[in-house]
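Section 3.1: Structural characterization of target chains.
Under the original work plan, the team committed to producing a structural model for every single-chain target entering the pipeline before any wet-lab resources were allocated. The record below documents one such target. The sequence was received from the expression subgroup and is listed exactly as submitted; it comprises 269 residues.
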Amino acid sequence: MKKKIFAMMLAASMTVALIGCGSSPKSAADSQDHLARIKAAGKITIATEGVWAPFTYHDEATDELIGFDVEVAAAIAEKLGVEPEFKEVAFDGGLTGVSTGTFDMMANGVDVTEERSKTYDFTAPYAYDHAVVVTLASNDTITSFENLNGLKTANSAGSTYEAMGREYGAEVMNVDTLGETMTLVSNGTVDATINANTSVQDYIKTTGTTDLKVAAVDSDVTLYGIPLAKGSDNDTLREAIDKAIEELRADGTLAEISIKYFGVDITAE
């Protein structure tokens, strides 16, 4: 009988212990959302390519990471009260890293699209652009996006421009940089490339090339936003970035950065 009572008491005590373990309060870190964790760390990790002028690239003289998106992201970080920590990765790697939590955000002229919005929560747009088709200046057969059907184009893997090429029936070659895409068009390896009008105009102006031209302009406006991992964990971070963008637009900072890199203000719709 004593053994039976002892066993019952032991089982009861173990049950209480297990209940106590299961109901222990979460640590402060576990209860913090993404914005709180970023502020606690004092920094925000930002994915960017570093090879797409004038959005994100390296100064030839100093090798410093510079560009429109780099300065905008740094200004947003300052508004959040943290230091920006840029991580240079391929475009598709940056997007994947945001969704997996490797990076806090991405600043790389990321188009806000219906398809991407299924995976990411985007901030309010901070800039506006148009997609264009670039061909050899001597090419008079490509005058629209529809003319790309059955032809070869080149673009960064995972980019909106890659997707557009495939949608219009082109065979798309994946490359890493804008310069590579332009070279492939220039030497006839591909028939065309699709890219942002702002980047194309900057490339033509910077290189002085007369071999290339803009053959077609998409009438739809491209919205550039900052993608965050989808979910309520990022609600306050998205709201804070939206507020920062609004303030940077209102005080003229966005326009100033845009004019510095593009010569025009692409931050006003």
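The longest helix spans residues 2-22.
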